[in-house]
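Continuing the batch. This is chain 6 of the set; chains 1 through 5 are on the previous pages. Same settings as before, nothing changed between runs. Recording input and output for traceability.
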Amino acid sequence: MNKINDMAQPTVIDKKPTSPNTTPKKTDSLQPSVRVLIVDDDEEDFEIIRDLIQNIPEQNFQVDWCKNYETGSKALSNPKHDIYFVDYYLGVKTGIDLLKDALAHNCEQPIILLTGQGNKKVDMEAMRSGAVDYLIKSQITTEQLDRCIRYSLERSRTLKKSRDSEYRFRNIFERSKDVIFISNRQLEFQNVNHAGTELFGFENEELLYHNTKSLFVNLSDQKHILKTLTKEGKIIDYKIELQAKDKTIKSCLFSASLETDETGKTYIQGIIHDISMLKKIEEIRLQSEMLEAKGEAIRMLAHEVRNPLTNIILSMEYLKSDAKSESLEFLNIIGRNSKKISSLINELLDSNQYYKLKLEIIPLQVVISKALEEVADRIELKKVKVNFSKPRYEANALIDLDRMIMAIVNILVNAVEAMTTEVGQLTISILTHSNFHTIRIEDNGKGISPENITKLFEPYFTTKTTGLGLGLATTHSILQSHKAEIDVSSTVNKGTTFTIKIPAL
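Output for chain 6:
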């Protein structure tokens, strides 16, 4: 028998008939070739197994050979065959070592362990190490190899489909924007996707087996969920409030079902959908509708006042043409006050034009920049120095751009007018947080007395000799409609600071 040299790559043994009288199979009518690699340091054993494989009917095999552990390990670390047969004894190392080495290199193809004699201990070790089957060389037949190969290849295809399916679902699990979880019957998380860490602010390790009582704002919600799951087996879109690590309240929809695994153990799988932003949008929409109704009432009132006011003005003008000097002064008083009432009506209507909000996701940097452009002339005339500090990333918020610019402009105008020419300093900064952004507008002007600060946002309150005192009242209403908060601190003769907190996106 001719010896086959040990090579770095598997040696290809061409298929051939087992006897001179055997007619070669017509490969063009056979199924696609199955590539087989045998790792065995005994050439005679290899040839016996090769011939048995080649005698399997209605199949076309390409059989390759690796003579030792080293070449076998290299071949399995870069698998190019459909199935592998590995001898248990391979010199100093064993087929079990080669199995572990192959699995370490992510070899997914089926591996069958071969040995010279039966050994239950080796059999069990082979199965634990990842072998799909275990064959005793002296008992191998063509029929046994046929069944072994068919079974192993089918099992390999099934496992590959399962792995692919698991990968797809794992991908969906990890990339979902909703929190997907598996928990025990006490709602302690056993598996949570990345969205859970983002929603609650905990690391994944902190969430696992976390006592969910601390997450529920109302413990009655947790009790209701567990009671419903026990009674009905599922709960769908139950509205709850959950608390993040930083104590932020999240409005959520909770859906879950009670499941049973193959061992009969029950568990809960579910989804938590964060609707906090939708709730904010809904609150802003309702606020907008309320303000729209208020604006409509003001417009109706203005219309009803203007009609008789117009008649008064026309009558006054008619009387002035024939009035005597002593009456003319009183008519002039009526005229001046009528015009003042008309101006008040116009101001009142202007202050209620913000009610129809056109909400968009806008960076606050854009709002401040555009507001500064609006007051650029005033800043230039007063020679005020402006310092605008903004964050590196966009501070996005859900706002009506035009109305928010109006609100900021009113504050800037007041700040500029309160400062002395050439020494005024206006400092504007934007700070970002997880749930809100902060706008700070500071000036070094004359400041506001404590008794006046409490009246600052009241309609028609003003300390100026001109103006009707509706600017800051309008600002306050606009910010309220955006669910924003405003605070003022001031020291007389030192300056004033306006601080605005607006919900973040």
